[in-house]
Structure formats: structure tokens, C-alpha cells
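Same chain as my last thread, 290 residues:
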Amino acid sequence: MTLALLLLSAASAPAVASKTAHYANVGGGLRMYYQDQGQDRGQDQGQDRDQDRDQDRPLVLIHGGGSTVQTSFGAILPRLARGRRVIAVEEQGHGHTADLDRPLSFEQMADDTAALLEQLHIRDADILGFSNGGMTALQLAVRHPSLVHRLVICSGFYAHAGFIPALRDGFEQPPNPDQMPKALRDAYLAAAPHPDLRALVAKTVAMMRSFSDLPDDKLRAIEAPTLVMLGDQDVIVPGHAVKLAQLVKHGQLAILPGAQHGAYLGVAESPSHPALVELGVAMIMGFLAE
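reply #2:
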């Protein structure tokens, strides 16, 4: 099991000519890249804003560690953006968002995401986080609970105990950029405004070694209905996902058969199959529409 399976994904290109691609200055010197796709159904169809508001509520996507919008969500974003607004972010040092002279932390990434949503005048959103993005999504629910309506945690974790032993052991080794799969490495180098693969890997490994576990009482305080998703061949211990779904007040659990880390999302770093991705998307969309 390579360290890259949980740590690293990749990116797009620094100069973006697209109506969906944007940057926002969110504080602390961070110029954050995000994509804004789909549409507000209520505005588009002239609906009463008090009706069908679950479909109108934006869905925010938070990528995996070292990853980007495209490598984590490129396979499913078009489906998710049919009939609803989807905002997909790239966190500090990832993809089009340049790094800063500060460590990476899940708390800071959650605060940066909250600052972006505030700029966009979004006060209520569904949040989906993959892998490291799952921890960022949980921190968002803990630190900014009023922003989060529903949560989807895909192959995520809330404590060091959630990693399979091989992954925990990998974090104790010296950071090694060569462990990043070639497709992801090439994508990062093509996307980053100031690419520094060694720095990205070193910062990510440092974060994974030192992050603070989310205590049980913080998880029990999460009011947002939460879907916890995992592959049965994932790098997260199944019992960890089970416990997370039990700790949150309104938890649901889905363990998908034959799926490696994020394969049910079609992520770039895991082999997948269209039927498996179709099943994953159907579960996500069904949960968000409940």
C-alpha cells in the first residue's frame, strides 16, 4: 500500500479560461481557486424559494489530500451539477491554489472554505469531502455548524486510528515525492502556479503525522445528517467508518463492494468501473435528496 493512496491526488492548469473557474481572496494571503458549476434550480425555473430548497442548496466538494477538483471529482461532477449548483474548491497548495508560508492543517482548510462560502453569500450548503477532504468537511461541521446542512464523508477519517497499519507506518517514513502516482504527479506539476512537489509532500506528511483527532463529543454534536461512505478495500479501517456513522447524531453508512480508496467516485488514483461509480453517485444523490 503506497502512501500516495491517501495523501496525494493532482490538478488542472494555472491559467484557466472557463466560465466556471474563479479565484477568491479569502484572507491570510490565500487566493483560492474554485469551480462554480450547475445552476440554482429556483432561479432558473422561477420556483418558490421556500419549495424544493434541498435541490437549490449548493453542494460543496472538497478534494483529497494533494488532489484537485478534476482528479477527485472529474468523473462525477457533471452528474452532480445537473439541476443544482456545485462549488468545488482547491485548498492551499493544491492544484491552482498557490501555497503559502504556513503549514497545512485541516482546521485552516475548513476556515478557508467557510470564508469562501461567506464571500459567495452562501449560509447553508451540503458538503462532500473525499479522503483528507472528509476530515476538512468534519472540521467545517464542527467549526462552522450553521453552514452545513448535510455531510457526505467519502473514505474519510476523524482520528489516526482510522488508517490501516500500512498507511500509518508510511507516514513515519521520510516524505518521498516518488510515491505519488505518475498521473497525479504530472497533473500537479501542470497545474500549480509555483510547483514544488517536494514541499507539498513534506507539508502533507507533516499534517498527517501531527493532526489532532476529533474527539467523540465534537462528533456527537454534529447535527447535520451524515452519510459515511467507504470501499471494502479502502485504506480506512471499516470499523472506523462504522464508529463515525454511530457517533454523529444522524449517521448513515455505505460500504461499497470491490472498491479501493475512492473508486466509487472514479478518483484518478484508484482503479474503478462505471457501474461502481454509478452506484456511488446514486447513493450520494439519493441521500442529498432525502
